[in-house]
Give the backbone structure.
Amino acid sequence: MKTLIIEKIEPKIIGELVTVGRILGETPDLLAIGQGEIPGTFNRAFQCRETIAANLVDSLAELIQKNAYQVILLSATTLGSEIAGRLGARLKAPVLSEVIEVKPDMTVKRPVYGGKAVAEYKIPEGHVILTIRRKYFEPALLEGTSAAEALTIENPSITLLSEDQIQTQGVRLEDAEIIVSGGRGMGDSGNFEILREMAGLLNAAVGASRGAVDEGWVPQTMQVGQTGNIVAPAVYFAVGISGASQHLAGIANAKCVVAVNKDEEANIFKRARFGIVSDYRNFIPVLIRALREEQ
Amino acid sequence: MHIAVLAKVVPDYEVPARDFELAGNRAHSRYTRMIGLYDENAVETGIQLKEKYGAKLSIVSYGHGDDVPILRKAIAMGGDTLHLVLGDSDDPYVIAANLEMALEQIKDVDLVLAGQQSADQDRGIVHGILSEMLGYTFLAQISRIEFDQDRWTVHQNHENGSRVLQFSRKAVLSITSSHENVPRIPVVRAIMAAKKKPVEKLQGIDAAPMKAEEIKVEIPKLESICEFLPLDDLQQTAKILLARLREERYL
């Protein structure tokens, strides 16, 4: 199947999509979005400096049809979700989003009902657009760089006024082996400081549930869950997090979940390997002391 | 200014995984039905635009006639009119075609808002397909909208932060949740008034479905068994936890 990856120049994400492409056949071609060198060796690579997905669709559809690409791979990110539906309608192609499993026989799986069930689909011949959920496929190692053909955009209808890249202090959430996450049970923005202190001792990243983000306690870039960051750490500390299915969908690949919650009926304990039924205000300071003693 | 908000009625999305049950390939019908998680954020965003700019706010849905009492919540929150396209497909192309038909009939809609994804199929693609059918532009993950001198300025969340975008065309926007669009709880008087508002029911249309065969839907096994640590002495609890995490090579 002739496959095209469309993705920003982020080697790990492109690597995940290359892995998916190889399951379906050969190494795919790449359309890299943004500026910089193209990581990895591709038979054919294109590059477009325009990063607003809404401005790309016309040129993308033309490129895909001209080169007879059948499978279009995107990551299930803001960029991917902005392109997938429109491109699908333009190409009259099936669109399957948030894919978590791909087989060579062209069957794919994706979660439904907030991850409480999984649906399997058979993809027919012809165009298909897949957005791939992060952290479900081991990223292929991208060696070397590729020269790219330029893809230009004419008459963009959306203008970028400003961009705010959040600078993460310490370990990035998506790369973290240990994550300390807080939920609505934290009670206040200032209370996240204790989680930052704990994360510092564990070389961990700090995350949050949607509830804590909606309260305005932490920025949305810290959100873990189906509609935030999909993470796959070795240990995930869920502190004051009830465990809504949308949150659990984001930590499905965490190897070990430690839940700290004063409500013993909290759903998070159904996903946890270790449970501490306690107010975090009592337990986390003690855990921090224990970590300090070990150092 | 005329804003339409798309709202889908879905099975209770807060049902915990341990209690979730399928009937065939879909959620069991015994679950309470409600407006989707992010659709309520979209309704709230629409109401805020109505209050700020004096816009007309239409609520548009595709689903069963039984959904009307549930959708009235969006009217009680602040929607002006409710339009329901009758149909039972959950194919994204069929849903988008029916919503397009409804929006064409409503006429003069400047902006279409929808939750970033439904809370049942979790696809997040219907609004993109719809925008293409309507010939509108589409932006995803929008958390704030402003209007000035015929231009929309929107804040878009992405994985590494956010950005501010501007456009002047008609658009479909997928709305993400933020602390600025937490859905309001309608007051009793508004709930009572919403019950009297007329509902426009439109007959659904046939449309070509997506060419992908759904083979099966299954509930994955939950394999984790929680070991609750003793709480008599929290210092000891902390030490046991760290020791166990090391024993099992997680730390």
